[in-house]
Structure formats: C-alpha cells, structure tokens
Specification:
Number of domains: 4
Oligomer: single chain
Shape: elongated
Number of strands: 25
Helix content: 25-40%
Number of helices: 13
Distance between the termini: 59 Å
Length: about 550
C-alpha cells in the first residue's frame, strides 16, 4: 500500500495534457522556489498548503500565481447538502473526478455509484460533527457566508494523486481574526474513491473526514498564532490524527505513522528533534502525545487546551490546563517519556497506552557497555525533547531517559542544542548524583540543571531504579525552578500538609497541596511562586504530612 504523498511536476498543468493535482502544483512551486527541503510524508496535504501560505513572501512572484490558482475552490458539476444541512458536498457526475464506491479484493470502482458515495460522505461528515462538536464539546467553526454556494461547510470530492487522502485550503480567503493570531475559513477536499491508499475505501473516507474537519475547527474556531516558530502546526496535525481514532476507534490508521516517532524522530547526529519540530517531521507520528494527555488527564483536557489557544500559543495553553490539574507541562512531558517505554512487548494497557501492544518499541539514541567502573555518554539536546540511552550490564540494560523540559526554549531558541554528560559509575560521577538500586551511581552534568529531568529504568524488571526519593530540585533555586516536588512514597491520593522551617526552626511557609501519582510514585507539587514570598537563602527543614505518613528532609534554598 502507498503511504507517502507522491507528487509530480505539473506546473503548468498543460505540460501533461491533463488536470493537475492542487497538492502537486503546490509541491512543484515550493520545490522551484527552493523551500521544500524534506520529502513529504503522510496522507494530509494541509501542511504542504500551510507551508506555501506562511512562506509566500519567499516565493518569486512568477511562481506565486501558480500556488494561488491551485488553492482556489474547485468548480464541480453539482452539489447537495448533508442530512443535517451543515455540509455542502460538491462533486462531479462524469469524467475524472466522478466518485465511486469500491468493491471486491483487490478493490475496484463500481460503475455509476457516485450518488451512493456522496450519500456516505454526507453521513460521515455529519457523524464527525456529532462527535467533535456535540459530544466532545469543541467549538463549532464559523460559517463562510456564501462562498461555495451557501453558508454551509464545503466538502469537495476530487480525484487526488496517489497517496493523497485529503486537505483543507482557502487559508486567508475569509478572515475572522487578524494580527498575532489569525482565524480563517477553510474548505475540505477529499479523494473520490480512496483506492490504493494504505487505508482504502470507506475506512479511508472516515478517518480523513474526522481529521480534515478537525482542521477546519482548529483554524476557524481557535486560530493560528503567527508569533511562534512554525505556528505550532505540528500540534494541529498530531491532534488531527488523534481525532481520527477518537471518532473511529476501530480503524487505527495512525499506527502507520508511529515508527517515525519511535525510531526515526532523530537528526543525523542521532539526537531527538525538539517535540515542537515541524520542518523535518509534520506531526502525524506524535499523535500519541494527544493519546497520553487524553488517557492520563481526561479527554476534556484537550478541549481546554484548544480553548486556551484563543489567548495563548499551544505549549503555554497545555501548561496552564495541566496546572489546573496539579501538574505542569514539564511533569506531564516527563511522564509521557516514561509511558513511551511501555509499548510492544512491554505494553501495560491498564497503566499506560490502551493500544500500546500495537505500538513500536522505543529505540535508543545511543547505547553503551558498562565496563570497568564507569560508562559515559556525551550528547546534546534541543529544547523540549526526549532522549533515551541504554547502558548494558551483564544481567540488565539500564535505560536512561533524559528530558529537556524547557518548552519556552522551543519558542525562543528552537534550534540551539545544550550539551550534557550522563555517567553511570561505581564511584561518585560528575554532576548531580543519584544512587540507583543496583548499587551504581548516576551523574548528570549540564549547564542549566533546572531545564532537565532524568529517569532510570531497568529493562529486566521495568522498575524505576532510583533509590528512596528526595525532594526535587535540590538545591532549590527560587527564580529558576517552577515547582518543588516532594516524594510521598507509601501515601495514597489525598491532601498533603507542607511546612518549611528555617535553620533556627522558624516556620517560614505552610500550605496544603494534593498528593498525586506520577510515574507510579506519589508526589506533592508546590508551585515555587508561593515560596518566593517568604522563603530565603539557606538550609531549611521540610516536613510533609499525609493521611498515612510524615516525611522530613533538609533542603538548600537559593534565591
């Protein structure tokens, strides 16, 4: 089956004596302009059109007209409304774009079945509306006036080129909001039979409708921020793919893209890309992040995140929504890194991904033998990225997960990697030191430790190898850290009472915070903003009281 968008040189179309694919025309124009640097992968043509729109000023004027012509609304022979009246379906009853139902194995087009195909298109899009808007609660996109023949949302059925499922277009034709953030109308184009695609026929139609209609919701109801790198468009794609599985859980076309994340989400130096990367990877392969947020925090979180995009870019919106759930984007991203180890033969559908058995196994960025007394891996990481390293012992492999959690850096310095050194040693290694359960010490040396998290997992037992938990970060830098995390091993969900006392035993802070489960361990998270008011530099005594236990530590604080 064909799983890649195949594009042909079709500008102008008359060179080939047949009508061109709009996506192919855009592809050719961007290639001529020297803009496309990576091979297009995936089934949705929206990122290609998005790329053309956002970089139009870099394209020679002589080529711009070809792109604009390709992105216009198609002119079809007839149209009719869906049963709900919300969608106007445009189609041809003859010639190349005539739709058809598929039948048989291998599948073939059924003659004169175009009206039956249109019936199904109309029913499928009405179903997508019912799930995405009425059931899940995403905001209905605004109508486009009389564009397309009426105020309804327009769906155009066309014969697309090999590998192309569908796309949305019309960016900028009708703007509801301009400035730092834009909201625009968009129409949908889908294939006329889904023949020969990696997911054929009705199933291909269903997931495409769920995906592309959600793009219309994204750009029309919530908008696109122009002030962040790549406009956060990877998140539009990853949640579009997630929506396919939400609306049609039994189809699972998204499995096709996951290997690109689990094995191929790395640059030439084997460093994982920033999770906010768009130019090299489009986002289809990262849909499991939306599955993680959905399964870990509840599906309504994604609705809140998109609602937050009305007033702030994506990563800041996710962070704020998670703070309302006694978490943060840093905490959730670290937990997501942990979940990604529990797939394939390690899958645990109760605690981690429900469909994890069908996901690939996470590949390592690097692996090293633990020989003698120490083993060192030196690398670098981009802001907001996940790295996985394997240390091979005679009877086990220790997996070190390194999380660069600085999501603001993905906006301010997306291409700047920070160096780090991670060491497993029988003696004291450099950097921040943790003692592991196998007797080995881990050391992590980096310039700004507050931007990082590390985890160590046994491949044999799949257990966290860190010894008895300690407060994190230590020392606590009040104007660098977001939160003070206190371990509550042995405590269940509930409320923890926190007290900080100075070295002279004066009470300088107290408060109540929820006990939450993170990575299978119980923690209490105190926002550092609450500590800055009364806590100064020095060694402090920290006391945590839960329903089951009382914990005490010493903690160095630096203002």
């Amino acid at each position: 089956m064909r799983s890649r968008l195949l594009f042909f040189l079709v500008v102008p179309a008359l060179l080939f004596g047949q009508e061109s694919s709009p996506l192919s025309a855009v592809r050719q124009a961007l290639t001529q302009a020297g803009i496309l640097e990576v091979e297009e992968t995936g089934k949705c043509g929206t990122p290609l059109i998005f790329e053309a729109r956002r970089r139009m000023n870099e394209i020679p004027v002589s080529i711009q007209s070809s792109i604009r012509a390709a992105l216009q609304r198609p002119v079809m022979q007839t149209n009719r409304l869906s049963p709900s009246g919300r969608f106007r379906i445009h189609y041809d009853t003859t010639e190349v774009h005539q739709p058809a139902v598929l039948s048989g194995t291998p599948a073939v087009r059924v003659a004169n079945s175009h009206e039956e195909y249109v019936d199904s298109v109309a029913a499928v899009f009405d179903h997508c509306w019912n799930v995405e808007i009425d059931m899940l609660g995403f905001e209905a996109p605004p109508l486009d006036g009389d564009a397309g023949g009426g105020p309804e949302h327009d769906v155009y059925i066309r014969s697309l080129f090999a590998g192309e499922f569908g796309y949305i277009s019309d960016f900028g034709e009708i703007k509801y909001e301009s400035g730092d953030k834009e909201r625009t109308a968009a129409f949908i184009v889908i294939d006329n039979d889904f023949l020969g695609l990696r997911t054929e026929g009705w199933d291909g139609l269903r997931v495409t409708a769920a995906h592309e209609f959600f793009h219309v919701v994204q750009v029309g109801s919530y908008g696109i921020w122009n002030i962040v790198p790549n406009y956060d468009f990877y998140f539009y794609e990853l949640t579009g793919v997630w929506m396919e599985d939400v609306v049609y859980d039994d189809i699972n076309d998204y499995y096709e893209d996951l290997p690109l994340f689990f094995s191929g989400f790395k640059d030439a130096a084997n460093r994982s890309y920033s999770f906010a990367e768009f130019n090299a990877r489009r986002g289809y392969e990262r849909s499991i992040f939306a599955h993680f947020l959905d399964q870990r925090f509840g599906r309504e979180l994604l609705v809140e995140v998109w609602d937050g995009v009305k007033t702030r870019p994506v990563l800041r919106s996710i962070h704020l929504a998670l703070q309302d759930r006694a978490s943060s984007l840093a905490d959730a991203f670290s937990e997501f890194a942990h979940w990604n180890l529990f797939t394939a033969s390690r899958a645990d559908s109760t605690r981690y991904y429900r469909e994890g058995t069908y996901y690939p196994k996470m590949s390592m960025n690097f692996s090293a033998e633990f020989t003698g007394s120490a083993s060192v891996i030196r690398s670098s990481a981009f802001p907001f990225s996940l790295q996985y390293f394997g240390y091979r012992f005679p009877s086990d492999t220790v997996i070190a997960i390194v999380v660069e959690k600085n999501f603001e850096g993905a906006y301010s310095s997306p291409g700047i990697a920070a160096n780090f050194e991670i060491t497993l040693s029988n003696s004291k290694p450099p950097g921040g030191v943790q003692t592991l359960r196998n007797g080995v010490k881990s050391g992590f040396a980096v310039e700004k430790p507050e931007n990082w998290r590390t985890q160590f997992i046994s491949s044999t037992t799949l257990r966290d190898l860190r010894e008895a938990s300690q407060p994190f970060p230590s020392p606590l830098r009040l104007f660098h850290a977001d939160a003070l995390v206190l371990p509550a091993d042995g405590s269940s969900a509930g409320v923890g009472e926190v007290f900080l006392l100075s070295s002279s035993l004066d009470l300088v802070f107290s408060g109540s915070f929820p006990v939450v489960d993170v990575l299978g361990k119980s923690f209490v998270r105190i926002p550092v903003s609450e500590l800055r008011k009364t806590v100064g530099t020095g060694v402090h005594f920290v006391v945590l009281k839960t329903r089951e236990k009382e914990y005490q530590w010493k903690l160095a604080v630096i203002r």
